[in-house]
Amino acid sequence: MSLKKKVGRLLIAGFKGITMSDEIKYLIHEYHIGGVILFGRNIGTPTEILHLTQSLQHEAKAAGYSSPLLICVDQENGVVRRLGEGTTIIPGAMLLGATDNPQHAYSAGVITGKELKALGINWNLAPVVDVNNNPKNPVIGVRSFGEDPNKVAEFAKQSMLGMQREKVMTTLKHFPGHGDTSVDSHLDLPIIKHDLQRLHEVELVPFKECIAAGADAIMTAHVYFPALETEENTPATLSRSVITNLLRKELKFDGVITTDCMEMDAIAKGIGTVNGAVKAIQAGVDLVMVSHIHSLQEQSILKIVEAVENGEISEKQIDESICRIENMINNFTNWSEIEETNLVPAFIGSKEHKDEMREIYLDGVTVVHDNGKTIQKDEKVLLIYPTNQYAMMVEDKRYSTIEMAEQFKKVHSLVDVMEINPSSYAEVTSTIANVVQAYDHIVALTLSAVQQPVQEQFVHELIKTGKLVDVVAIRSPYDASLFTMANRIICTYEFTKTAFEVVSQYLVGKVRVNGKFPVTTF
């Protein structure tokens, strides 16, 4: 194999469209890239997804690949889910944590793996094993199973094992921990200043537990840890002391190490994507992820080839990485199992899968406070929700808070809806007392009000009117501590259709929910 194709095996690339692009076809044939990452932009119907993944594998086989192409996706579930129409809605991490039942994480992992595998996606960039111990974390939050490192470890392990059962490769992320940041690494470089003892007691606990249970791959964090890296402002992704010394040698992880996307600003606005790709390989990673721009994908390969030719990276290291990648792939898939078919299995998005997941939602949606005053049939209700604000760059933009109105109207006939643009909160707050006079009961949805004072103030004004106000925190559970005078406070942790269906039924007294608050705000 030529050097450029050896190095190509270390690249994960993305592209636009629900059919294979000419650029990705070129990278497969010219460089034998290791894999492809799919985003919402690539996801159509289940039939279209299957056609896409099969066409990618067909191209890889025609190009002479010895084993199938890695096809990966961020199917964390909850607020970060890529699969859409026709597939099962599966609870995200914090809702699973709120069930206090690790078996639910395993079941969700099994269904996730089963549907991904059937659609030709063989590698999931999940579970998130970050311990979310910072209420103002803008990028992890409800993507985490919770605040307790041991609980996160157990739930992450079960999620991982469930997906592995269905022969889907998994990824622990983001090493060595992204849970205690107040900066989104998509936008800037976060810094975590904890000492090594603290990291071993909190951030590293889930990684160690899952490594012991047979982790497949680990994704690095674009976060700077001064306790681990002496070179100032060097993110973990580019740090040999983090990747090789800590993860490989101390924690004895011998699986695949992949970067997060190298086009994120924490890298791109620092060392740059292409130079960062070289430094990440030098640090000891096996796979470099360049998710968007074709020119940067090709330049990254060529720059790494140049570094090998100049003696800055040994060819032996490249060979060792390829060996780890091939071992992971061969443990989960082979050419014989990739069939040429357009038939999507009937279990994708099946009633059986949906019913099983709905039971988990009933165990996870959490009532934090309840004065016992349920919405009555003859009460006129005003449902208020903010236009969806994507708190995280990684969230899929196809999902909306408006789904709550559709679900609530199915269970209550006397309901009006008010949608508020975030920029209009101050204006609406000044007139809301007059608006709500015509209603008996108010249901107010919050989207991380703990980080948005104008949203918090608006809900307080609602409560001051003396009306019965139910607050539903549909992202951050930390919102619950802000509105202790509300009639009821409920956390759904996510704005998925099933979460809205369950909370709507709870609000009118049709179901009971059993979630246990997974964070410590009170």
UniProtKB/TrEMBL annotation:
Q: Tell me one GO molecular function of this protein.
A: hydrolase activity, hydrolyzing O-glycosyl compounds
By its UniProt entry, which InterPro entries does this protein fall under? GH, Glyco_hydro_3_C_sf, Glyco_hydro_3_N, Glyco_hydro_3_N_sf, NagZ_Beta-hexosaminidase
Q: Which residues form a coiled coil?
A: none
One BP term from GO: peptidoglycan turnover
Name all Glycoside hydrolase family 3 N-terminal domain ranges. 3-327
Sequence intervals crossing the membrane:
none
* Entry superkingdom: Bacteria
Alphabetically sorted, this entry's keywords are:
Glycosidase, Hydrolase
SUPFAM superfamilies from the UniProt entry: (Trans)glycosidases
Query: Pfam families from the entry?
Result: Glyco_hydro_3
Signal peptide from the UniProt entry: none
Question: Which family, according to the similarity comment?
Answer: Belongs to the glycosyl hydrolase 3 family.
Protein name per its UniProtKB record? Beta-N-acetylhexosaminidase
